[in-house]
Amino acid sequence: MPVEKDPRRRLLSRYQANPILTAYHWPYFINTVFNAGAVRLDSGETLLLCRVEDCSGRSHLCAARSADGVNQWKVDTQPTLLPDAENHPEEVWGIEDSRVVWVPELGQYAVTYTCYSRQGPGVSLALTKDFKEFKRLGDVLPPEDKDAALLPHRIGGRWALIHRPVPRTGRANIWISFSPDLKHWGDHAVLLEAKRGPWWDADKIGLGPPLIETAQGWLMMYHGVKTTVSGCIYRLGLALLDLEDPRHVLLRGTQWIFGPETHYELTGDVANITFPCGYTLGDDGDTLNLYYGAADTSIALATGSIGELLHWLRANSETDTDAL
């Protein structure tokens, strides 16, 4: 796979032929495609469950498949999952930004996505075995909330969900909640706080792709939003959560590791955005394919190593209470 050549050491390397998916790959007319959940199927094929914005401004989800996760994508000829406002009024303004997790206990994929209601964005959950038929569990967290992903197995006998409520005042932090049945959620707690001041992750943060389970803990990639005089910049950082109790943050990186630099990330419908919602791992359990939305206009790919990300995090983490 060709990767960029750059004298600066990078943890994530962009695919040279980025972006890998644009509106021109779609078999029906759309505005843009971005922010895709990702999973590697038993066949070895990679499936991206992409956010597709149509020309009304609303979004739906559509699957794209590739044998190598890079090239020759086959896109569903019709939307894979459309909003169902008649049965789920919380989806009346569209559905967005899926995260996909294989749940062995259920023998199904759990798809969390943002349901866009008249009251704002909330968190919905659906289950599927084949990305053809979906069982909607409805909106599990009310507006305003988004950026949610389920952990793939129970923690202490309960399911755990990472998400990001948006308060009317104050900072937007990452939270964790628990459920006995995937429908009723409680024991809500702040997991990671947005910082104050000039930091890259001040005032507003949110989950990127689903957590990655490693021997050292749950590796979390999260986005931080820096507000500048010319607009917002969405970048990616790292944190590590305890395996047995993910409410306990073990490490948090002091710097962002990936941000908009290229023309397809700097310009588009919404400029200065790198926003990953999905990843796959290679057969070695270390090689990372990270799929991200670029400028809310296309889908791009970056590659890296889980081991290198953890090594960097251990060397570049500190507790800075003055920034909170």
Quaternary assembly = single chain
Count of DSSP E strands? Answer: 21
| Rg, Cα atoms, Å | 18 Å
Give the topology string: H per helix, E per strand.
EEEEEEEEEEEEEEEEEEHEEEH
Q: CATH homologous superfamily, by name?
A: Glycosyl hydrolase domain, family 43
CATH class: Mainly Beta
- Helix proportion: under 10%
Write the CATH architecture name.
5 Propeller
Instruction: Please give the domain count.
Output: 1
Explain how this protein is built.
With 324 residues, the protein is mainly β. The chain has a single domain (20-316), classed as Glycosyl hydrolase domain, family 43 (Tachylectin-2, Chain A, 5 Propeller), CATH 2.115.10.20. The protein is built from two helices and 21 strands. The protein has helices spanning 263-266, 306-315; strands at residues 13-14, 32-40, 46-53, 59-66, 74-75, 95-103, 108-117, 120-128, 134-141, 145-150, 159-165, 174-179, 186-192, 205-207, 212-214, 217-228, 231-241, 249-252, 274-281, 287-294, 298-305. Strands 14, 15, 16, 17 and 18 form a five-stranded antiparallel β-sheet that branches. The radius of gyration is 18 Å and the shape is globular. The model is unreliable at 2-8 (pLDDT under 50).
What brief labels describe this structure?
324 residues; mainly beta; Tachylectin-2, Chain A; five-stranded antiparallel sheet
Task: Write the SSE topology.
Blueprint: E1 13-14, E2 32-40, E3 46-53, E4 59-66, E5 74-75, E6 95-103, E7 108-117, E8 120-128, E9 134-141, E10 145-150, E11 159-165, E12 174-179, E13 186-192, E14 205-207, E15 212-214, E16 217-228, E17 231-241, E18 249-252, H1 263-266, E19 274-281, E20 287-294, E21 298-305, H2 306-315
Antiparallel strand pairs: 1-21, 2-3, 3-4, 4-5, 6-7, 7-8, 8-9, 10-11, 11-12, 12-13, 14-16, 15-16, 16-17, 17-18, 19-20, 20-21
